[in-house]
Here is the input.
Amino acid sequence: MQKKLPAFLSLTLVLIVAILVDVARAADGPAVKTVSAQKTTMRRTSSQPATARAWHEAELFAKVAGYASKVTADIGDAVKAGQTLMLIDVPEIIKTYERQQAELSLLEYKREQSQAAVGVARAELRALQSEYNRVQALIKTKAVTQRVGDETKSRFESAKARLVVAEAEVKSAASSVMVGRKTLEETEVMMQYASLKAPFAGVVTQRSVDPGDLVRNRVSSGGSREPLFTVSKIDVLRVTVPVPERDAVWVKKGDTAKIEFPAIPGEPLKNVVARRSGRLDPKTRTMAVEVDIPNANGRLIPGMYCKVEIIMQEKLTLVVPSEAVRFDLTGGESIVYVVNDDNSISHVPVKIGIDDGHNIEILSGLSGGEQVVTGMLGRLKDGQEVSVLNN
Here is the structure.
């Protein structure tokens, strides 16, 4: 039967072995892990929260005041462009229209009378013209006295003056008729406002009026009333993404965009950047970018929250893990620690590019294939020997 070592002797042996291992490692330098600098596909992306909005959305207010006589649309109704949503009873405008019609008829009658007066004046002038010419010929032959000639001339001149007055009255009457017609047309337009119509094809997403309600126009109500209807075009949605300043310079029209709606998990959508505002909001320091999403089935709802990832740049490039780069907080060069063939460390300045949070693009300083240290970067000195651990 073998004898067991006392417990304290076993513990002592374990400690001795650990010390010997540490001494051996110390002799070879500190142990480090390395990775190889290699080329891979890098993406410069911007992931931002966003909101889906209707392609078009119109808030409809009344242009005229009156009582709602008929409401023909409700929330959820699909409407066509120009479709009537409600009718407003406007008896005052109708009475005004009828009065203006009567006034216009009177003005047209007066114009016709003045035109007839011009005809009479012209006929009278022609007759007096002939009489005047005849008398002038008789005066030359001494057949009539000069007094008769003067009286004839006076009547002729009076006839010319009456024609001028009659023609002026025709112009005045014509102007009055034109003004009357314009006034009547304006009233006709106001009567058309009594019918509230959809400005485009879409869906009624809000209604705040019932039959019998007193409807006021927005001007008389100070612009504070809520819209009578809201019509939204939702067969296509636009997702508005607030892109921060650091990414705004990279975003361009046509960039791939991936959209995920938390309300519809596991069904990401993909499209491209359709528009960019080209300016930063001075309050948020973000630029508005829009992505269009087809929504023919109406499953997506305006106002839904989503997360959008925009791929602004994608290329095959040399990279190292993020933990392999030591950044100079004073704004100097970034450093990677390269393990040489003799297991010595070299501090290599590098110029970095894209940083996706996992890998960092190396624009210059490395050529590829170098073994770079990951971790413990602040403890390693240039030229120091290390022991490379197997990954």
The helical segments are 7-28, 91-140, 146-192, 245-248. The first strand starts at residue 31 and ends at 36.
